[in-house]
Write a structure and sequence with these properties.
The chain is an alpha/beta fold. It contains 15 helices and 16 strands. Bound molecules: pyridoxal-5'-phosphate. Pyridoxal-5'-phosphate binds next to helix 6.
Amino acid sequence: MSKNETWLSRSLAAVWHPCTQMQHHHSTGPMALPLVPIARGEGAWLYDFDGKRYLDGISSWWTNLFGHANPRINAALKAQLDRLEHVMLAGFTHQPVVELSERLAALTGGHLGHAFYASDGASATEIALKMSFHFWQNRGRPEKNRFLCLTGSYHGETVGALAVTDVPLFKDAYAPLVRQADTVMCPDSRQARRGETAADVARRAAAALAAKLEAEGEQIAAFILEPLVQGAAGMVMYDPEYLRLARQLCDRYEVHLICDEIAVGCGRTGSFFAHEQADIKPDLLCLSKGISGGYLPLSIVLSTDAIYAAFYDEATTRGFLHSHSYTGNPLACQAALATLDIFAADDVHAANRIKAAQLQAAFAPLAAHPRVRHLRQRGMILAFDVDSQDPAFSRKFYRAVLSREALVRPMGNTVYVMPPYIVTPAEIAHLAQAVTGALDAALENGETATPPSDLA
Ligand SMILES: *Cc1c(COP(=O)(O)O)cnc(C)c1O
């Protein structure tokens, strides 16, 4: 057995992999899903135990910003490791968590000056929902206890976060456990009718939101959305006009606006926060994924003074009652500080504008591909839909692209790339070539009439 095969079989025996039908890892049929053992990472590349390499075209589930084993982040973490690995954050504090909170507040122009910590994105969603609900309780308006989200929204997969997640693959099996939020029309630009612009679609969706809030705003605590790009829905993109109108409506009907920037934050869409492109400010902001550079589990909910003030009281029960053992972990905060240091030292947004243009140019020929629909891009996210009825399309594509030395994992019939920001022009060319080759390979075989299945 090769080293690869050894780790693969030991993993299949002992590790229950996320978002995976484990049977598919043993299967050899059309639904076969390869399991790839990774020995090390460097820059945009992942290497297996036999030296085979893969370009990380999706930043390891959208977390990695500045490459694997980034020397600057590594050095910061090694230094922190020798000072303090962890201390509880109730009743104690430490330098990395203080500095990170201050720097994040500064990035919001001081608007969101209070940072609450957790370890994963779903917990950040739940914290934001609980904060909003408890805010209205504390303000004497307990009837405001429901939430709104967009169709196709994804805010995490814990039972609380599933309440505002509208992706059937993740939600349907657990629906009886969940207090489901209401959904309103998503401003997905692909819905444009003849003669309509993306901004027109945004206005149409905002009209639906207005009607919902006019009818039920009295009972609604918060509206949560993913600004500009709905990731897990299949890189659904929409016009910033929607955010401007949603902000106005939330103000009018006294509903908190929660921006879930777990995927789109940290420069991914062209500005540090995606909502900046609409020139609005949320009441609550969720961050995770890229904030630690893709190194360690860390999530943060930033809130306004007004929300913070509603909890400030003599009574413990009016305080925000939520904690995790690793809240504000110093190593994770230090990884985030090192990540923000890179943003401060290098002109990351300007460099990303050039890389985004390179991505656009490299993938532009696909627009003419007979099976490609809706080629679209927002900053360092590029996506297109594939016209195929083959339920195994995403599997076939995934296997085909891995064999071309790239990690690109379609969601249903949507293929997307979201590389780390350190990707070079040569690596972008490699990615485009691998995606184009894999697309043709995956489409080569027979089609069936059943609807497509999902990978995530
Ligand atoms: C990934 C993601 C989450 C959940 O984060 P986890 O760390 O996976 O729990 C929530 N919201 C959005 C928009 C995400 O992309």
